[in-house]
């Protein structure tokens, strides 16, 4: 998703990466392109269990990376986990804003 260029507001190009990713997920959900992994999660024969299973797998992979003190792998698995979490939120008609709001309430 990175353009490699700084946005005009002077921020970094990762500032809105969660919002951008969530927008792509919503668009895959609406359009269901055949070659999309995201779309395949929305149409999977296992239903929501497909993404729930992936969240379980990615959590385990994250724990193993943490135990190995492998920071590169930890970042990779954390990104896999967050991506699947956002797919789950979209599946449940929720928004990344719901996650932000919940976190903000805890400040
Ligand atoms: N962020 C992701 C993303 N993170 C993980 N994945 C997929 O989630 C799956 C993870 O399952 P596994 O861990 O079993 O995968 P793996 O093949 O063992 O590989 P690893 O990731 O564990 O190394 C892989 O198929 C990844 O490709 C993702 N697929 C898509 N996205 C984003 O979604 C956008 C739309 O993608 P499509 O739906 O494919 O068009 C992309 O541009 C990305 O921004």
From TrEMBL:
InterPro entries: HisE, PRib-ATP_PPHydrolase-like. It is an enzyme of class 3 (hydrolase). It catalyses: 1-(5-phospho-beta-D-ribosyl)-ATP + H2O = 1-(5-phospho-beta-D-ribosyl)-5'-AMP + diphosphate + H(+). It is found in: Cytoplasm. It comes from the Archaea. GO terms for cellular component: cytoplasm. Pathway: Amino-acid biosynthesis; L-histidine biosynthesis; L-histidine from 5-phospho-alpha-D-ribose 1-diphosphate: step 2/9. Keywords: Amino-acid biosynthesis, ATP-binding, Cytoplasm, Histidine biosynthesis, Hydrolase, Nucleotide-binding. GO terms for molecular function: ATP binding; phosphoribosyl-ATP diphosphatase activity. Its EC number is 3.6.1.31. One of its GO terms (biological process) is L-histidine biosynthetic process. Pfam families: PRA-PH. Belongs to the PRA-PH family. NCBIfam families: histidine_hisI. This is Phosphoribosyl-ATP pyrophosphatase. The lineage of its organism: Archaea, Methanobacteriati, Methanobacteriota, Stenosarchaea group, Halobacteria.
């Amino acid at each position: 998703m990175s353009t490699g260029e700084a946005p005009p507001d002077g921020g970094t190009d990762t500032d809105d990466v969660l919002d951008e990713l969530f927008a792509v997920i919503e668009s895959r959900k609406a359009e269901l392109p055949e070659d999309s992994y995201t779309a395949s999660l929305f149409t999977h024969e296992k239903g929501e269990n497909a993404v729930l299973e992936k969240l379980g797998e990615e959590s385990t992979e994250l724990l193993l990376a943490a135990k190995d003190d492998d920071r590169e792998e930890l970042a990779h698995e954390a990104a896999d986990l967050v991506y699947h979490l956002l797919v789950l939120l979209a599946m449940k008609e929720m928004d990344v804003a719901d996650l932000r709001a919940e976190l903000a309430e805890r400040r």
